[in-house]
Amino acid sequence: MTQTKTTRDPEADQKTTPGRFRRLLQNVGPALVLATVVIGPGSLALNTIAGSTYGYALLWVPVAATILMLIYTWTSARIGLVTGKTLFQVTREKFGPNTARMAGLFGYLAVLAFQAGNSAAVGFAAEALFGLDFRVWALIFFVPALGLIFLPNLYGKLELLVRIVVGLMLLTFVGTLILVGVDTGGAVAGLVPSFPDTEAIFLTLGLAATTFSIVAAVYQGYLMREKSWGPEQLESEGLDSFVGIGVLGAISVIVLLTSAGALYGSGEPAFSAQGMAGQLEPLAGPGAFYLFTIGFFFASFSSLVVNPLIGATLLADGLNKDSSMDGRVVKLWTGIAMVAGLAVVLAFEGSPVELLRIAQGFAVVAFPLLGYIVLSVARDRSIMGEHINKTWVQAVAVIGYITILAIVLNYLRQILLAL
Question: Residue 319 has what pLDDT?
């Protein structure tokens, strides 16, 4: 008696709900790249400060900022998918070349000025784990970071690295939170918007800026090109944005919950991620210290790589040059940003406050301009056709733009106070 061997039809499998869902999950990746650069030392530090100073009261901030980040990331992706062009190619057609040049230049300069903080953070995390001066570690990890950028076919390698890094960050930060514990009632109450005092208003704007990054959001359109996606991938991109930016928001929330649970009301608040790691050990044991510090390291290293890549891409596109990841111009300006960041760390023994003020000064120009370009293009039917932003999406995006302006005003306030 012969047995008939049955074979599965891959195309039929993809039409089933489980097969279709698996196929969609396999496409998740570009927004994870954004998540790894936004979840950097600045994000960890401000969530740490918020939790240790105000407990769970500001938990609503990273949640709201995640929603705004999702809207702008999704919108930027759709611009790239529908038009088949980069953001600044569309900008040149709609507003002229000077607008594209200004947005690209100031975007790069803002990213460049923030890069020293990423280099220093990698060194601080490694010093906490292994000893030796943080500058030695900053130099050591600069080498593989720069080497990665100059590899051929960069996007595929970067997406693989990002998947690993995101998994490790989730594992370490969730593990830390489990060791610390959560006051569920306090956390739920923290989802209701409130400002405990006047200083909390300014901290809220800084905290929102570390999750809702317009520079990172616009980069999603460029990642669509690296994936060779077109309009037929609009559904896949929706899931990619939701998962990737959801991971970003989840990690921000987890860090704030950890800080609130471990440090609020226990004495002096922590004013940096490495400070929080040090205070965790006597409160929650060495396991919490190592888990959090390892997560801090991977968050810093991923920002060290992806942050300058974003800036270089915006600069190249603004100047109407090849803005692909494997283009010589992008690799060159990425390398320059990495070298400059390391040089500042080695020369000034860290990331000087003055450099942060310079970064904020460039951001004052870049952030509102980039946000306006995305808002304007997304509602232009001559460019987007039937895929223009729906009214409710545009309404949320306008709230996001008002938030961008508030963040910029807070930057101006900090610059003026420093004078």
Answer: 95
Quick one: pLDDT at residue 348?
78
**Tell me, which fold does domain 29-418 have in CATH?**
Amino acid/polyamine transporter I (1.20.1740)
pLDDT at 53 over 50: yes
Side-chain-side CA neighbours of residue 226 (13 Å): 26
Percent of the chain with pLDDT over 70: 84
Gap between the Cα atoms of 82 and 80, Å rounded: 6
What is the token pair recorded at 12? 């039929």
Q: What is the tens place of the pLDDT at every residue in 65-100?
A: 999 999 999 999 899 989 989 999 999 999 999 999
> 125 and 300 in contact (C-beta within 8 Å)?
yes
**pLDDT above 50: residue 10:** no
Three-point CA angle 354, 357, 363, nearest 5°: 150
Q: What are the backbone dihedrals phi and psi of residue 16, each rounded to the nearest 5 degrees, phi first?
A: -75, 160
Q: Which two tokens stand for residue 126?
A: 């490694």
The domain spans of the chain are: 29-418
Which long-range contacts link 120-124 to residues 24+ away (Cβ below 8 Å)? 120/41, 120/345, 120/350, 120/351, 121/40, 121/41, 121/273, 121/274, 121/296, 121/299, 121/300, 121/303, 121/304, 122/297, 122/300, 122/301, 122/304, 123/345, 124/274, 124/300
Of 212, 261, 227, 179, the C-alpha closest to 80 is 227
